[in-house]
């Protein structure tokens, strides 16, 4: 479906770690919004750039479907969905446009505290719980390891204690969650942070000019932050 839209639409996380910094960064680019009653759609006031507040995992798909033009999402989510699309033969439809300098974390393998880590070969035949099966499978293949990937949508850290898995592959930021669950990180699969994501193809019409202006302002804002 080809939709002609003059306004730019940016998807950001509705709630969670990236929500407030994403909004603040966009506001520092001169964007402002009138709050809508349900707060899921924020109409742009200063510029014709609207916000859509969604679950972060939905952001790549919204860009792929052309429902949104841009999105602020973790590189981990973007990469995972990109790998998954490649695996299933779906064309790549989104890409990372800019790293945004907040929301730093890493996707790591974590094992029970009492394991003595000797290296990836230790994972052979083990069950690994994760929310990132495509990234994990890609890494395992690269290491030549056969392991069982147990896909969970959340609370991955509890899986070893419940006997669902032997170890996990999840995001680590401060490390507090791992420590609280008697787990320790042993290998990093991906260094992540919030990124600006956009379509794999170029924008057209009004939206091309708007996107270009926004990127210019964003680059200025990011420069003064560092
Ligand atoms: C992430 C991740 C870990 C936690 C790690 O979850 O899945 O559970 O953060 O952070 P820490 O190292 O600072 O403890 P998040 O809270 O973002 O929620 P989610 O798992 O529901 O996406
Ligand atoms: Zn999420
Ligand atoms: Mg979590």
UniProtKB/TrEMBL annotation:
Q: Where is the ATP phosphoribosyltransferase catalytic domain?
A: 55-218
Highest taxon listed in the record's lineage: Bacteria
GO MF annotation, one: magnesium ion binding
Activity: how regulated: Feedback inhibited by histidine.
Instruction: Give the record's pathway.
Output: Amino-acid biosynthesis; L-histidine biosynthesis; L-histidine from 5-phospho-alpha-D-ribose 1-diphosphate: step 1/9
Where do the TM regions start and end? none
Keywords per UniProt: Amino-acid biosynthesis, ATP-binding, Cytoplasm, Glycosyltransferase, Histidine biosynthesis, Magnesium, Metal-binding, Nucleotide-binding, Transferase
Give the UniProt subcellular location, in the record's own words: Cytoplasm
Q: What does this protein do?
A: Catalyzes the condensation of ATP and 5-phosphoribose 1-diphosphate to form N'-(5'-phosphoribosyl)-ATP (PR-ATP). Has a crucial role in the pathway because the rate of histidine biosynthesis seems to be controlled primarily by regulation of HisG enzymatic activity.
Protein known as: ATP phosphoribosyltransferase
Q: Which organism is it from?
A: Cognatilysobacter lacus
State which stretch of the full-length protein is shown: 4 to 229 of 302
